Amino acid sequence: MSIQINLSKIKSTLPEHVTLVAVSKTKPVSDLMQAYDAGQRVFGENKIQEMVDKWEQMPKDIEWHMIGHVQTNKVKYMAPFVSLIHGVDSLKLLEEINKQALKNNRIIDCLLQIHIAEEETKFGLDEEELKALLASPSFKEMKNIRIVGLMGMATFTDNQNQIKKEFTHLKSVFDSLNSKDGSSRDALQYISTMKILSMGMSGDYQLAISCGSTMVRIGSSIFGGRS
């Protein structure tokens, strides 16, 4: 199956309001260009150096999403061009993104990563940490980041009920942040831009969409398995 065919097959299953992030990590530029030629413009990478290398080689109308765990000392390398950072899981990281965005005279869009899985290995904020972050004085002073939504990763399991429970939980956190009378509303000065709920990957994206996802991250179903 070609990348082009895989892509059009997946796109045909996505509602209009759902953005497809083609997860291109470890794949060569030639594969990405096949997806690009088929009309794909949003690519997700999980290593900053790999993303920088691809950004340098590829057309400049691509939206690059950083979907992996971000180390603060690497933020400066992607700050000139990254479109969206998915995995923001600490105030310290947000401060660094804000600092590097300012240096590049940009406002960088970010998603706050919420911990919804039962696995300890997954990153993310719990609800108390989320509230503390949004209420912190330094958050209110950041002018070069924009929180545009939330992201979460479900437990790696075949138990669909569990995955559904985790996605539904994330959607409820998202809804409470967006509610007009929510207590977090004052803290979230960018509330009008809280539009993105990024959840769902190759194996569970249809379930994620049914639970309210507006952005799915799909790699192996487009590019094939990773070596």
pLDDT under 50 segments (min length 5)? none
Helix content: 25-40%
Strand order of the largest sheet: 1-2-3-4-5-6-7-8
Average of per-residue pLDDT values: 92
Query: Which structural class matches the secondary elements?
Result: alpha/beta
Radius of gyration: 17 Å
Tell me the span between the first and last alpha carbons.
17 Å
The counted number of beta strands is: 8
Share of residues in strands: 15-25%
The sequence of SSEs as H and E is HEHEHEHEHEHHEHEHEH
The number of helical segments is 10
The geometry reads as globular
For the report, how would you describe the main beta sheet? Answer: 8 strands, parallel, barrel
Protein described:
With 227 residues, this protein is an alpha/beta fold. The chain has helices at residues 3-11, 29-37, 48-57, 75-78, 91-103, 127-135, 137-140, 160-178, 205-210, 220-223; strands at 19-23, 42-45, 63-66, 84-88, 108-113, 145-151, 196-201, 215-218. It has an eight-stranded parallel β-barrel with strand order 1-2-3-4-5-6-7-8. The two termini are 17 Å apart. The mean pLDDT is 92.
Summarize the model shown.
This protein has 10 helices and 8 strands.
Features:
alpha/beta, eight-stranded parallel β-barrel, 227 residues
Layout of helices and strands:
Blueprint: H1 3-11, E1 19-23, H2 29-37, E2 42-45, H3 48-57, E3 63-66, H4 75-78, E4 84-88, H5 91-103, E5 108-113, H6 127-135, H7 137-140, E6 145-151, H8 160-178, E7 196-201, H9 205-210, E8 215-218, H10 220-223
